[in-house]
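User: I'm writing a short methods note and want a consistent example. For Glycerol kinase, I'll paste the sequence; you return only the structure tokens, no commentary, since I'll be parsing the reply automatically.
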Amino acid sequence: MPNRSDTYVAAIDQGTTSSRCIIFDQGGRIVAVDQREHRQIFPKPGWVEHDATEIWAKVQAVVAGALAKAGLRADQLTALGITNQRETTVLWDRATGKPVHNAIVWQDTRTSALCTELGGEHGQDRFRDTTGLPLASYFSGPKAAWLLEHVPGLRRRAELGEIAFGTIDSWLIWNLTGGTDGGVHVTDVTNAGRTLLMDLETLQWDSAILSAMSIPEAMLPEIRSSAEVYGTAVGQLAGVPVASALGDQQAAVFGQTCYGVGEAKNTYGTGSFLLLNTGDRPVPSKSGLLTTMGYRLGGERPVYCLEGSIAITGALVQWFRDQLGIIRSADEIEPLAASVSDNGGAYIVPAFSGLFAPYWRSDARGVVTGLTRYVTKAHLARAVLEATSWQTREVVDAMYQDSGVRITTLKVDGGMTANGLLMQHQADVLGVPVIRPVVSETTCLGAAYAAGLATGVWQDLDELRSHWQRDAEWSPRMGAEEREREYGNWRMAVERSFGWHKEDRDAEA
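Assistant:
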């Protein structure tokens, strides 16, 4: 049983496939975890949706579950933090609290034609100087614009202030703090920075971009810092301060204590996201990366990052399991891949919905190359894992080109870090050590840390750094010549993925 005098902070991690609540003690150790999956809705090819009402119900369930497992009451929590799947877009009725449509998920590609149209003669870079982002279907602003255009009567209601826009953080905070009865409509800089609507310098909504996308400002949340008390929870968490919000990848940066310029982390989930701390000034990317918010603590100067977003990494293992049926469970892939010494010349480029960084090619589609009769399912299993390492290598190279900062180690987290073969290959292809922390749930930890800083549980970043502990480390073993030869093969395979969806995309436009 918990000690009544101990201090506890809860974090809600609302992810792409599930929602979790983790309760941490003052030492940053996990006290209890509860997790529940939600449905993935695929109305058409390339379309991905979630039911926001279902997500809110699952969040309430995991909060209750974590409290029960910890043997704690809500009044024993000092603070609550939020971390969330980014870019996933919800529009809801302020009076009823009901979403006007399913949430459009970050993976959804229905706005590709709209983004091409918005780019016009300027192309993908039309808003990049202001937002740090290319015009791509990934981001939430175009998703909101699509809903305004396709849900009957919605635009008029939005202009009248009857509709609220939010990414998942806004949806949860609004519901946690009262919903239709006084719910707080806010977002933080990290989530706002992924909408394609926020000015990276002023940290405010950009009126020119709102006008270009025909998005009424009346529907937008107030932009706040990542660590401050937004409001007080009602219901099962009555009285608990809601004190942080961070997009999941930024939360992982914070949980991995990457507080110094040049510190980097990679999170391996459905996709993978590598972020490099570039300090208190945004670094423009010329190499296909995103200039993004890292975090902002209260009234302090914001911290910026370069980000390489990879759409498909862990999802490729799921495809190998579910669509091909070669393995029965994800953990079977490592021994199968380890049963051969190399990939047999096979490469898999998982451009299932285009390629993200550093290419941003929505016309790309997945390819398997280099096949001969020698190749077995074990070689393909190895190629599945290596696809994650090579995509990460491309992002690291782009970061160096943009920032001049060379990564000396890579901190890693997420489910795929349990795969030692993958982590060794990652170290091999980067030529630097790969380090996994003791607490691998770094997204939740980051949200908890930020909420705890806002409420005095922890005093400063140095105290948080003191909690970080190494669990495992992989050092490079591959020779430079082999590394570059294999990398050249990978780049050839990537080129083969280009152009497959071009005719369909032109038809849509």
